[in-house]
Amino acid sequence: MLPDYVFSREKILPVIIAKLIVDLQYNTYFMKGFVRRIDAKAFLALAGAHLIVDVRSPKEFTEGHTTGAVNISLFTDDERAVIGTLYQKQGREPALLKGLDFALPKVFDYLSSLSKVAKGKTIGLHCWRGGLRSEMMAEVFSKAGYQVYLLAGGYKAYRSFIRDSFSVPAKIIILGGYTGCGKTDILKSLSQLGEQVIDLEALASHKGSVFGALGQGHQPTNEQFENKLYSIWSGMDFGKRIWMEDESRSIGRVALPPPVYEHISNGRMVKVILDKNIRISRLVDEYAGFDKGLLASALLRIREGLGGNRYNLAMEALVKDDFSLVADQVLEYYDKAYQKSIDKRQCREILDIELKGPDPSLHAKAILDKLKNNNNA
């Protein structure tokens, strides 16, 4: 008896053989599980309560995967490469048989791996396009008693779904301001006050400037950055305001999805204004502890923007451990660059708010009071 989807003739051979092998070992579970196909929306709803299994190769999984998924690969990276080469040179049937040669000896390994991580007897499962890889693994797992929900269209359909989701209308408020205003800390304080916040720089593992990689972990791939962003985005109440920091199109090596960048470009902005001395002090606290070689490398990257005199002054100050002077020179560059970007977006509603002192929690409260007083709650 086959599950409720239809196999093509060329796909049924490995499934039947896999069934026979599993039946020999797991005969007490014979046909207790089932396999169903569901769309991306239903699949993501399932993911909140049940294990998601990604059967693609380890390299594919590393490039990007659904939040919380585990990787039980049908093929290793090398096996997948062999099958792909065989498909290109000899066609589908030889590639299919080679895949079968690779997979069948590992059937019990697949089941052992699943039993170690499964939360129960219900799982979601997908490959790249929802084809043979996921269908074969679904049969193996269902024969062992698991209730398997297949993602129709595979990971490719998931990627399409999440990118479309970024286009939904949202009440975005952008937190803007010159470098050193502590916008990230203000966002954290806003979150503690019950506001909805998406910290793009935390998701990107980068603070945006040429110094932005210092103290951060490895950046995710662009694909995984979007996946991580969706995991936060999907939990937002779009009837209420959502705060994000003003960002360029790229944050380090990752790029914002075009709809998200449109939200930032067109959203209302609260632009914070803070005394330059406080900003310098904040930057010194944040960056003075890093290796001076790394700081010098970052300065070199903006040498042209700084200009020769300012660059030389900053480098001399760095050698002398005069980090305040370094920060002062850097801010001259970044303040002009930021103001230029603001001027290019003159159609956007901007609410300026001057803040006092260094405390981001007080800044957050002042911002909310300002919005309330301006009837922008």
Rounded average pLDDT: 90
Helical run tally: 18
Biggest sheet character = 5 strands, parallel
CATH class type of the largest domain: Alpha Beta
CATH topology of the largest domain: the name is Rossmann fold
Short summary:
This protein has 377 residues and is of the alpha/beta class. It has helices at residues 9-25, 40-47, 58-63, 77-90, 92-103, 107-117, 132-143, 154-165, 183-192, 200-204, 222-233, 258-266, 276-287, 292-301, 303-306, 308-319, 323-343, 360-373; strands at residues 34-38, 51-54, 70-71, 122-126, 147-151, 171-177, 196-198, 241-245, 250-251, 254-255, 268-273, 350-354.
Summarize the helices and strands and which ones pair or pack.
Layout: H1 9-25, E1 34-38, H2 40-47, E2 51-54, H3 58-63, E3 70-71, H4 77-90, H5 92-103, H6 107-117, E4 122-126, H7 132-143, E5 147-151, H8 154-165, E6 171-177, H9 183-192, E7 196-198, H10 200-204, H11 222-233, E8 241-245, E9 250-251, E10 254-255, H12 258-266, E11 268-273, H13 276-287, H14 292-301, H15 303-306, H16 308-319, H17 323-343, E12 350-354, H18 360-373
Parallel strand pairs: 1-5, 2-3, 2-4, 4-5, 6-8, 6-11, 7-8, 11-12
Antiparallel strand pairs: 9-10
Helix pairs in contact: 1-7, 4-5, 9-18, 13-17, 14-16, 16-17
Could you explain how this protein is built, in words?
The chain contains 18 helices and 12 strands. It is of the alpha/beta class. It has 2 domains: 9-162, 3-Layer(aba) Sandwich (Oxidized Rhodanese, domain 1); 168-373, Rossmann fold, CATH 3.40.50. The strands form 3 sheets. A 5-stranded parallel sheet has the order 1-5-4-2-3.
